[in-house]
Design a protein that fits this description.
22-stranded antiparallel β-barrel; 45 strands; 9 helices; cell outer membrane
């Protein structure tokens, strides 16, 4: 082990020891918290079990004249504590008996309030949920216990499609038993929708909120305004001798998602510059030259965005007799997304590089060069539809319980890009139109300085090398599943019951990811026409005004106008033959069975379960192989398909055995100790098992040879198997009363068969280029059978300060901290030059999405008509790779959100929200930490609305 890695390991050990000491100190303080609570009389304490309004329900059932009515944040918090306390696994939750009771913009933001749960911020919205600092790849998500489809390239659920207004609970299982659907090494997220008979009373609710987004207001002709509206109805009726209930909700959103953006091309090379002469750096690490990383291009992006969503969630519950429970539920979501982009591009990022500042790890923080500049436009339209639902029937009596559940989930995503380009030429006054520039990222944000003689806002200077591209992507993800569960109850025995069940699922993902229909060369007359007729003034008042960048405008062109001029139509439509070598068609069939025994002592001091789940998976992957022509375009080789395709089919089958043991012990009054040992798996991203092969069909202007054009081909690996882990969890939980909680959890995972990038030459494949066979390495992922360890701790505190004198007794706080560390290593997957892949020049990264430190803290005040909440979230840096092109690192991130609700009447509430108050940009580095590659600003967001409840 190198000295630097020894130092890093020692530093991590010190942090872990410090966390353990802090946790021990928290446990020592338990008696002081208890003393404050014990100072209250028994009459002041909530009862051990709440019903009706005590759980946030306004029904008169269960209420007496002396009942304490608890609603809002307090009711949700108490419900969540009750779920955690009563569970036989380690679980954290946010549960309300009201639809739309959580003061969040999305389910993703609701999840962020659970201890150990973090999110990636995409355009200001929470996405890519991680549990205990681990990435979304190691987690698993369900809706009402059912697997959910996704429109992204992986399995991660897009939580934005489920509005928080129509969901009444989220649970995060951090340990597992045999009855839970497999797939989450870090944990399982389960979203819950309302069951109307369980709800128990009639409710009509409507809400309207106006939205203001400050960054959108900077765009000329826009005002930053949007809206969200929802309505829901729940009721119960007598139907013969039985009970019938219905619940339905609808939500509509029309908002913008503004963003100012800097990014770089995804391909990184160690100091391979074009036209560098004697200054050109060698790839060879033995040459002694100090290497640095350069990209193909650098760009600044200004975007006008629109986002719409329509969502419906409904359920029907029928109990013809007390033993029989029949449920039908359905969900529908339609999201539309339009991006209107304008990019200023430094197109030849590797030409004539002169380093100014180089970090020890090869990050090129400042440099100069010469490049043609481009004004690019793009209109991206994305439509995503989600359909889901199912039917369940359950019979329960004193002897047994048996249930069957049938479910279906489908997500369709269509995306079309129409893109054009105008580039500088000799008329700019510079040789070959290449403008001298300096790019300085030493401040952590990009500062681009162009030659003083070049006017970046002069439309006349962008008059060359035009094209019109139409690129389409299509995904269709479907899951059909059937589940049968049964329980036999045992009387007067340590074994309380036996459970068993079967589950079958058929998951199919079809993706057409490279449907291209391009005009690769535009004649001079059309270029002149597009330049003169499609000019527009720069659309934003203060582009990247919160950054240190000195590029605040450039010559923009209307996207639709330029595309129509160059292509001869507003939309050329899809290619005649929709097939391509990158197409994906994967079918995953799973058969699982489990057996489990639930046990407990007669005094309920000890309880738990032990069981095993056996899972068999069959994968069938279909792809295409085809030939290509390589032609010179503007001095660079470009690949085009010849149109002929051969079908390839790859299969795989494997079985996983997943035993589990969960124990809960009441060590003292209100003090629980839980332990769990279990085996878990995390399935690879389904598109990573595709048989397709992805070639770069764009003219990057740097392909000096045919080999350059073919280099970098990547694809899936149908032989991938799940990551496996042995897991150990130990949780200490103290409940002074129903309203407060202090817990410490320790967790350990031994990981095996982790997914890593394959060696550069481990998968050689032959393709036909210009009629000749060319054998090249294909970048893909594979399983690593070596073992690695992951460990961590988690602290959770929930405290209501009701013992303080009025008005301070309205305050409360919840806080959660998670520390995680691992010796798992993820080497850089890029192999653009197989002889010198990036892993020779970079240190390995950690598990995808792993943040060593995460923290969330909520301070709330609820008294009288007012309910206020301030929420702070933090996560340390983490790996966020981009496909198989290079490791990408996200820098530490802080966020602060505020919400307020005021009760105007018994039925009417005023609500205000403000998110992203710190207004921090998201900064990503590639291929090493500190090599800034992306900076995103999206501004603050404000909401004001009214909620009516009848």
């Amino acid at each position: 082990m190198s000295k630097s890695r020894q130092t890093t390991a020692f530093s991590r050990q010190r942090r872990l020891c410090a966390g353990l000491m802090a946790s021990a100190a928290a446990l020592l303080l338990l008696p002081h918290f208890a003393q404050a609570q014990d100072a209250r009389s028994d009459d002041d304490r909530p009862p051990a079990s709440d019903n009706g309004e005590q759980q946030g329900v306004s029904s008169a059932a269960g209420q007496g004249a002396g009942d304490i009515v608890v609603t809002g944040i307090r009711a949700t918090q108490r419900n969540s504590i009750e779920v955690k306390r009563n569970a036989n696994v380690i679980v954290d939750a946010i549960v309300s008996d009201e639809i739309g009771a959580t003061p969040d913009q999305s389910v993703g933001e609701t999840l962020e309030r659970i201890v150990g749960v973090t999110a990636d911020r995409f355009k200001g919205s929470a996405s890519e949920i991680s549990i205990r600092g681990l990435g979304p790849f190691l987690g698993f998500s369900t809706l009402n216990g059912r697997e959910v489809t996704s429109g992204s390239g992986d399995r991660s659920v897009s939580f934005q499609q489920f509005p928080s207004e129509l969901v009444n609970g989220v649970l995060v299982y951090k340990s597992q038993n045999a009855s839970l659907v497999e797939g989450g090494t870090s944990g399982i997220i389960d979203l819950r929708t309302l069951r109307p008979l369980d709800y128990g009373h009639r409710r009509l609710q409507a809400e309207i909120r106006g939205t203001y987004e400050a960054y959108d207001d900077k765009i000329k002709g826009r005002n930053g305004l949007g809206y969200r509206g929802s309505v829901s109805y729940t009721d119960q009726f007598k139907l013969g001798d039985g009970d019938f209930g219905i619940s339905i909700g609808y939500e509509r959103a029309d908002e913008s998602a503004p963003e100012d953006f800097y990014t770089e091309s995804s391909t990184s090379r160690p100091c391979n510059t074009i036209g560098g002469g004697t200054d050109r750096c060698s790839y060879d690490p033995e040459s002694g030259n100090p290497y640095y990383f350069v990209q193909n291009s650098y760009l600044f992006r200004q975007m006008n965005n629109n986002l719409t969503r329509d969502a419906v969630i409904g359920s029907v519950q029928y109990m013809p007799r007390p033993e029989l429970d029949i449920n039908l539920d359905a969900q529908f979501s339609r999201r539309g997304w339009t991006e209107n982009r304008s990019d200023l591009v430094v197109a030849e990022g590797r030409r004539g590089i002169t380093p100014i500042d180089r970090a020890d790890n090869g990050a090129l923080n400042a440099f100069s060069g010469q490049s043609r500049l481009e004004s690019q436009t793009r209109i991206r339209d994305r439509d995503e539809d989600y359909y889901g639902g199912g039917a369940s029937v359950e019979w329960t009596d004193d002897a047994a319980k048996i249930g069957v559940d049938v479910s279906y989930s489908q997500t369709k995503r269509d995306q079309v890009d129409r893109q054009t380009r105008l580039r500088t030429s000799e008329t700019s006054g510079y040789d070959h139109g290449r403008i001298p520039y300096t790019l300085d990222k030493r401040s952590g944000e990009p500062v681009l300085t162009l030659d003083p003689g070049f006017d970046v806002n002069d439309h006349d200077l962008y008059d060359d090398a035009s094209y019109a591209r139409r690129r389409a992507e299509y995904r269709n993800d479907k899951i059909f599943a059937v589940r049968l569960d049964g329980t036999a109850f045992v009387a007067d025995s340590f074994i309380r019951s036996f459970q068993g069940g079967l589950r079958y699922s058929d998951h199919r993902r079809v993706a057409d990811l490279d449907n291209a229909n391009d005009v690769s060369s535009v004649d001079d007359a059309l270029i002149a026409e597009g330049n003169s007729q499609c000019r527009i003034n720069f659309r934003e008042k203060d582009f990247m005004g919160d950054s240190s960048s000195n590029i605040h405008s450039w010559a923009e062109f209307d996207p639709l106008c330029t595309y129509t001029t160059f292509a001869g139509s507003e939309d050329l439509g899809p290619a005649t033959d929709p097939r391509s070598t990158s197409d994906i068609n994967v079918t995953e069939k799973i058969m699982a069975g489990y057996a489990m025994a639930n046990f407990g002592t007669s005094d309920d001091r000890l309880g738990g379960n032990v069981g095993v789940r056996i899972v068999n998976t069959t994968v069938r992957s279909v792809g295409y192989r085809g030939a290509f022509d390589a032609t010179l375009v503007n001095g660079s080789y470009m690949l085009t398909p010849t149109g002929g395709f051969d079908t390839v089919i790859r299969k795989n089958n494997f079985t996983n055995v997943l035993p589990s043991l969960n124990v809960k012990y009441l060590a003292a009054q209100n003090f629980l100790v839980r332990g769990a040992i279990y085996r878990a798996i995390s399935r690879p991203n389904i598109e990573d098992m595709g048989a397709g092969r992805d070639f770069s069909l764009e003219n990057s202007d740097t392909n000096e040879t045919i080999a350059d054009a073919v280099a970098g081909v990547q694809g899936g690996n149908p032989q991938l198997e799940p990551l496996k882990s042995w897991n150990g969890d130990l949780s200490f939980e103290y409940y002074p009363n129903q309203t407060n909680l202090i817990s410490l959890a320790l967790f350990y995972k031994q990981l095996q068969a982790g997914v890593i990038s394959a060696d550069a030459y481990s998968n050689m494949e032959t393709f036909t280029i210009n009629g000749q066979p060319v054998t090249v390495p294909v970048a893909q992922q594979t399983n690593d059978d070596s073992k690695s360890d992951l460990w961590g701790l988690e602290i959770n505190v929930s405290q209501e300060f009701t013992f303080l004198p009025s008005p301070f007794d309205g305050f409360g706080v919840t806080a959660g901290y998670t520390y995680a560390d691992t010796d798992f290593e993820y080497e850089d997957p890029s192999a653009v030059d197989p002889d010198y892949p990036l892993r020779l020049f970079t240190d390995p990264a950690s598990i995808i999405g792993l943040s060593h430190h995460t923290f969330s803290g909520q301070l709330y005040y609820e008294k009288g008509p007012a309910s206020l909440r301030l929420l702070y979230k933090y996560r340390s840096d983490y790996l966020k790779p981009y496909q198989l092109t290079a490791n990408r690192y996200a820098t530490p991130y802080n966020s602060l959100d505020f919400s307020a609700q005021f009760k105007l009447t018994d039925n009417l509430r005023l609500r205000f929200d403000a998110s992203n108050l710190l207004n921090e940009p998201q900064i990503l580095s590639r291929p090493v930490p500190g090599a800034v590659s992306e900076v995103s600003y999206y501004g603050r967001r404000y909401n004001l609305g009214l909620k009516l409840r009848l």
